[in-house]
Prior knowledge:
Blueprint: H1 2-45, H2 50-63, H3 65-75, H4 83-121, H5 124-163
Helix pairs in contact: 1-2, 1-3, 2-3, 2-5, 4-5
Amino acid sequence: MIAALLVVIAVLVALVWHELRQARRAAAIQAALHLFGPAQGAAVGDPRAMLTWVPLARAARTLEPAAFAALDAATGGAFPFTREQIERAHARVSAEWLTWEAAHDEEYRLKAAEAELELGRSTGEAARLARARLDRIQREKIERYQQRYEEYIRTAKALQALVE
């Protein structure tokens, strides 16, 4: 009689334990979806967002491997960001850089042309001011380019590191 009662209690404990594990796994999956669903949208809007979200996702994956394994299976890839998504983010940042670079070059080419035209028409003090303006335009062009290039390189390298 006591042996049968102990078997029933053991079975009930095992069932409760199993249910608790299932509930915890479901809660971890829901939490990951709730947290990283918006992160996916943020990364589509701005690929630089991956620099914040991918490390957080990797940490969460380490803490909740079963939940992320289930999400990977359900989504057909590494949740929330696949290698391909990170590579596309890197490509987008590079394409944005090239677009900006061309626009920057055109903007300053026009500014310099205007300043050179003014310099050609000027004499004396007006010519010195026009020369100073042309020099300022060239410095500004280089400074803005360097700032933006440094930002691009930092971002591109960081995204590339996420792929490796």
